[in-house]
Amino acid sequence: MSHQPASRTGRNTRYAGLPLVAAPRLVPAAGYRATLRSVLVGPSVTPRIMRSPKILVFDSGVGGLTVFGEIARVRPDARFVYAADDALFPYGKVAEPELVDRVLGLMAGFIATYDPDLAVIACNTAATLVLPALRERFSLPFVGTVPAIKPACAASLTKRVSVLGTEATVAREYTQALIRSFGQGCNVTLVGSGRLASLAETALAGEAVDDAAIRAEIAPCFVEDDGERTDTVVLACTHYPLLLDRLERLAPWPVRWIDPAPAVARRVLELVGPPAGRNTEPATAIFTSGRAPSADLTAALARFGLSVEDPAVSA
Prior knowledge:
This protein is of the alpha/beta class. Helices cover 38% and strands 19% of the residues. β8 and β9 form a beta hairpin.
């Protein structure tokens, strides 16, 4: 595949120079900085100690497995439903109003069918757009997954950080607001990948993915400026950690890769408390397309402790 960096969403920018444009759908009277936290963690909720809580983990595909795996590790007693909206994958290509309506409708069905105690939106593209609408419509606590820009910029020694996400995520005002608020003087390169999430899905399904295709998608993340190189890359799509071994191998030089899953799991613990034993009930995976997963994908799901059932919610 030929690679044309100029055609991508990738630019180097100082956070102070980003346009200060408040997106109305995210900004209440309290101001944007307050909203950054509310979109990430939601309104203040009194933590409850729950025995075997039922947790719904939602994503456009299998990328949310990286988040699911971390939550299952810290709450082994929880009962899980993993819901993948593969019928509309990838979300990065979907118009915003359509995506909001889609996720609201699916979530209404999942909540009615499975009655979860908490839902995790394990998709950056959906979380940065749909969380406010979900919290307005449903009383259920929601935990979102958003680009881990704050810890990445705090950890960078060279002050050269790249944010690797879908084209929709890196273009969204919410992502730029995170950079303005938490960039800490770093040069931040936004890199919108049109293919990497699909490549991760393909690889997990057991199909061959060429190294050159992955290398082309991550190449714009690696910037050398005034003798300083990018040393930290934010994985702003939950699909990308599925390829972490190959990302490390194909990178032109070593960097720190920031996976948001541990932070999401910590937030879940804040809301439902520590584990109390271990659950023996099998976790369920739902695919809205109704298509049967390949043998390799079924085996991969089994390694996460998931078994597939027919979708209970119509796509």
